[in-house]
TrEMBL record:
Family, as annotated: Belongs to the purine nucleoside phosphorylase YfiH/LACC1 family.
Keywords from the UniProt entry: Hydrolase, Metal-binding, Transferase, Zinc
Matching PANTHER family: PURINE NUCLEOSIDE PHOSPHORYLASE LACC1 (PTHR30616:SF2), UNCHARACTERIZED PROTEIN YFIH (PTHR30616)
Matching Gene3D superfamilies: CNF1/YfiH-like putative cysteine hydrolases
Entry annotated with the keyword Phosphoprotein: no
SUPFAM superfamilies assigned: CNF1/YfiH-like putative cysteine hydrolases
Keyword Mitochondrion among UniProt keywords: no
MF annotations from Gene Ontology: copper ion binding; hydrolase activity; S-methyl-5-thioadenosine phosphorylase activity
Swiss-Prot/TrEMBL catalytic activity: S-methyl-5'-thioadenosine + phosphate = 5-(methylsulfanyl)-alpha-D-ribose 1-phosphate + adenine; adenosine + phosphate = alpha-D-ribose 1-phosphate + adenine; adenosine + H2O + H(+) = inosine + NH4(+); inosine + phosphate = alpha-D-ribose 1-phosphate + hypoxanthine
Gene: yfiH
Protein name: Purine nucleoside phosphorylase
Organism encoding this protein: Novacetimonas maltaceti
InterPro entries: Cu_polyphenol_OxRdtase, Cu_polyphenol_OxRdtase_sf, Cytotoxic_necrot_fac-like_cat
Length: 271
C-alpha cells in the first residue's frame, strides 16, 4: 500500500507476510509482528511473545530472540513492561531481565540498541518515532488506556527526551476494527466519562443498546490532539484475520481457552 506523507513523498507500507511495517516510520527499525514465524505450538502457534501466556518458556525465548534479531538488537535487549491498561510511561536507558518490566503501558527511549516491545491481541499497538529517529516510543492502547491518556503521556515523555510533538510520527498497528468491536452501554459510558468527545467513535450496532467502537480511529484522534505531526492507522483487523493474528475477542466468541499474543517493536537506529 502506498500513501503520500505530509511532504509529498510516497510512503510504502508492508502489510503482507509475517511482519508488517509502516512507511511513515522510514528508516527506523520496527515491526508489527504477526503470529507467524515462531516455534510455539497449539493455541500459541507460532510466534507467541507473551511471557505470561502459559506457553513453553523455551519456545518463548526462541520466539522473542527471532523478533529481536529481526530489528537488529540482541535478544536480551528486547524489552517489555507489565501492561495494566493504564496510562503510565517509563523512559528506558538500560535493559532489565525478561518479565521484570515495570507496571506501565508505554516506553520511550533515546538510546540505540534497545528495542521496545508491546504485546497485544486486539488492543492497539502504537509505535512512535521523531523525524530524525533519535527518540522512539511504543504504547499498548486498549480502550481504557487510550481514554485515560496513555498516548498523550507517551508523546510528553518523548518530548522530555528532546524532541518536539510536531516532529513525532505515530502508527496505530493491527488491532480490532470498528466492524468487529461490538460493545455495550457500560463500556461506552466509561469512555465518555473520560473523553466527552469520544461519541463520534461509537456507531449503533444491530443489537439494541450496543455500539461498534472504532478503537484505531479513536487512537489516531487522541494522537492528533496531542500535537503529533503525523498519525494514522494501518487498518488491519486482528479479529477477522485468524491466520495471522491472535484475538481475545475471537477467543471469547469461541468459548474461551488459551491464547498467544503478537508483539510490536521499535528501536532507535544507530545514526
Amino acid at each position: 500500500m502506498t500513501r503520500m506523507d505530509g511532504t509529498g513523498q510516497v510512503e510504502r507500507d508492508q502489510l503482507e507476510g509475517p511482519v508488517l511495517r509502516a512507511g511513515l516510520l522510514g528508516h527506523v527499525p520496527h515491526g508489527f509482528f504477526t503470529r507467524l514465524g515462531g516455534v510455539s505450538t497449539g493455541p500459541y502457534a507460532s510466534l507467541n511473545c507473551s511471557v505470561r501466556s502459559g506457553d513453553d518458556p523455551a519456545a518463548l525465548r526462541e520466539n522473542r530472540a527471532r523478533v529481536a534479531r529481526a530489528v537488529g538488537v540482541v535478544p536480551e535487549n528486547l524489552l517489555g513492561v507489565t501492561q495494566v491498561h493504564g496510562s503510565d510511561v517509563i523512559s528506558v536507558d538500560t535493559p532489565w531481565e525478561e518479565g521484570q518490566g515495570a507496571r506501565a503501558d508505554a516506553m520511550v527511549c533515546a538510546r540505540p540498541g534497545l528495542a521496545l516491545g508491546v504485546i497485544t491481541a486486539d488492543c492497539a499497538p502504537v509505535l512512535f518515532a521523531d523525524a530524525r529517529g533519535h527518540v522512539v516510543g511504543a504504547a499498548h492502547a486498549g480502550w481504557r488506556g487510550a481514554a485515560a491518556g496513555v498516548l498523550e503521556a507517551t508523546v510528553a515523555a518523548m518530548c522530555a527526551l528532546g524532541c518536539r510533538a510536531g516532529d513525532i510520527r505515530a502508527i496505530v498497528g493491527p488491532c480490532i476494527a470498528r466492524d468487529s468491536y461490538e460493545v455495550g452501554d457500560d463500556m461506552r459510558d466509561a469512555v465518555l466519562a473520560l473523553d466527552g468527545a469520544a461519541g463520534a467513535f461509537f456507531a449503533p450496532a444491530r443489537r439494541q443498546g450496543h455500539y461498534q467502537f472504532d478503537l484505531p480511529g479513536f487512537c489516531v484522534e487522541r494522537l492528533r490532539g496531542a500535537g503529533v505531526g503525523q498519525a494514522r492507522a494501518l487498518g488491519v483487523d486482528t479479529l477477522t484475520d485468524e491466520a495471522r493474528f491472535f484475538s481475545h475477542r475471537r477467543r471469547t466468541l469461541a468459548g474461551g481457552g488459551k491464547i498467544g499474543h503478537q508483539i510490536s517493536v521499535i528501536t532507535r537506529p544507530h545514526v
